Amino acid sequence: MRNFRTRGAVALAGAAAIAVVVSLASTAEAGTTLGASAAESGRYFGTAVANYKLSDATYSGILDREFNMITPENEMKWDATEPSQGSFNYSSADAIVAHANAHNQRMRGHALAWYSQQPPWAQGMEGTALRNAMVNHITNVATHYKGKIYAWDVVNEAFADGGGGGRRDSNLQRTGNDWIEVAFKTARAADPGAKLCYNDYNTDGVNAKSTGVYNMVKDFKARGVPIDCVGFQSHINSGSPLPSDYQANLQRFADLGVDVQITELDIQGSGTAQANSYATVVKSCLAVARCTGITVWGIRDSDSWRSGDTPLLFDNNGNKKAAYTSALNALNSGGTSSPPPVSTSPSVSVSPSVSVSPSVSTSPSSPGGGTGNGCTATTSVNQWPGGFVVTVRVTAGAAAINGWTVGLTLPSGATVTSSWNVTRSGNSWSNVSYNGHVNAGQYTEFGIQGTGTAGTLTPTCAGS
Ligand code: G3I
């Protein structure tokens, strides 16, 4: 087993305090798609995608019109990516990533370590051999996708159902209780720019299972184990109904200092009842500042793993359901708060002997644009050895703006590998269709990921 150490790790929670804090989401004009409407409060709206369906024009048409985050439904799982030990196959997952890159969509990675969907060779392993195989798997997959993943489900479904609030028995659990934190440290070392999430089901309300997860996250935060987010699958059905304390449960996790995300949403039912439940889930996310996005587990009802429950937003023919309209209206009703400006990466631990700590800094711009249509840009930089994420916040001045361009020059040696919610022309970064309008005093955000060192940035902003 490899030895992981956290010497020198630095908590960055305080960094958020030096960022410019604007508590209200932009109340820009109502968006007409799920992704655009979610983006108005700095959030995303995603879906699970199966690679073999991308050639279906109806499927990909809806995908590219409505969604700006993609989770591979099965293609990044252990059985798919490492079918025989040490031999990696990324072809299906790479095809999804290529699709996302071509359509300005981001990726959630799913899932690095899970008791289920292990390849047969791993299913038969135990002890140190399995632990080493898990570490090797995470290192390889997270390295292959380094810089391309917004958030990884590092560990999936590790807690038991029922009243105990303890861990699920599995071959991974039997390698030692520390397998989860080892998985997170391994993922951080491989891709320091990705948010690292724990993901589970039946944790959507306050119950014994979710409290078990809550206690683990609290412990990880206290000990500097790198965890950035918790995913709530939210498979809602008659046996697992929408809990009345759904929002309160999201909030209690957010209060631990992690982002929360709704990661596999589907709701059994039809008509008004289903539509109302979708609205409740969406509004719950919007009401929690650190709820950064929602992903539904498929596009059409016929794409669902539970197609008989008709649990999704589009019918079998790709038509919008009442649930779609309800979810969109809820997104457009606006959040009371939006996600925080700083990507928090509390610590980076590199095995076996090097520990590094990313730093986050913020810098404001001088106001750009003329009187009445000005804006300011501020940057938050999450820097780690060899790479960075810059989050740029564009805040409108005394009047609303209908478009903006940020001037931002990165130092020589820094190379942009991806960006989101923005269109780039050299050192000019301009709004895309859905985030140009920003009301007076409100803001929108875009992101840049790159290799090298971002340094001290001095953005300018011009509104129109
Ligand atoms: O691709 C093969 C096909 O060639 C074969 O003929 C067929 C025979 O059964 O199987 C096909 O693979 C199936 C695969 O889905 C693709 O459709 C697998 O058997 C089946 O097990 C697999 O199910 C996936 C399930 O995870 C596995 O646990 C579902 O698609 C997927 O939606 C589901 O997703 C999970 C999340 O990862 C974690 N949270 C719960 C969620 C729902 O179960």
From TrEMBL:
<dbReference type="InterPro" id="IPR012291">
    <property type="entry name" value="CBM2_carb-bd_dom_sf"/>
</dbReference>
<keyword id="KW-0624">Polysaccharide degradation</keyword>
<dbReference type="Pfam" id="PF00331">
    <property type="entry name" value="Glyco_hydro_10"/>
</dbReference>
<comment type="similarity">
    <text>Belongs to the glycosyl hydrolase 10 (cellulase F) family.</text>
</comment>
<dbReference type="Pfam" id="PF00553">
    <property type="entry name" value="CBM_2"/>
</dbReference>
<dbReference type="InterPro" id="IPR001919">
    <property type="entry name" value="CBD2"/>
</dbReference>
<feature type="signal peptide">
    <location>
        <begin position="1"/>
        <end position="30"/>
    </location>
</feature>
<dbReference type="InterPro" id="IPR031158">
    <property type="entry name" value="GH10_AS"/>
</dbReference>
<dbReference type="InterPro" id="IPR008965">
    <property type="entry name" value="CBM2/CBM3_carb-bd_dom_sf"/>
</dbReference>
<dbReference type="InterPro" id="IPR044846">
    <property type="entry name" value="GH10"/>
</dbReference>
<feature type="domain" description="GH10">
    <location>
        <begin position="28"/>
        <end position="330"/>
    </location>
</feature>
<feature type="active site" description="Nucleophile">
    <location>
        <position position="264"/>
    </location>
</feature>
<dbReference type="InterPro" id="IPR017853">
    <property type="entry name" value="GH"/>
</dbReference>
<feature type="domain" description="CBM2">
    <location>
        <begin position="368"/>
        <end position="464"/>
    </location>
</feature>
<keyword id="KW-0326">Glycosidase</keyword>
<keyword id="KW-0378">Hydrolase</keyword>
<feature type="region of interest" description="Disordered">
    <location>
        <begin position="332"/>
        <end position="377"/>
    </location>
</feature>
<keyword id="KW-0732">Signal</keyword>
<protein>
    <recommendedName>
        <fullName>Beta-xylanase</fullName>
        <ecNumber>3.2.1.8</ecNumber>
    </recommendedName>
</protein>
<dbReference type="InterPro" id="IPR001000">
    <property type="entry name" value="GH10_dom"/>
</dbReference>
<keyword id="KW-0858">Xylan degradation</keyword>
<keyword id="KW-0119">Carbohydrate metabolism</keyword>
<feature type="compositionally biased region" description="Low complexity">
    <location>
        <begin position="344"/>
        <end position="366"/>
    </location>
</feature>
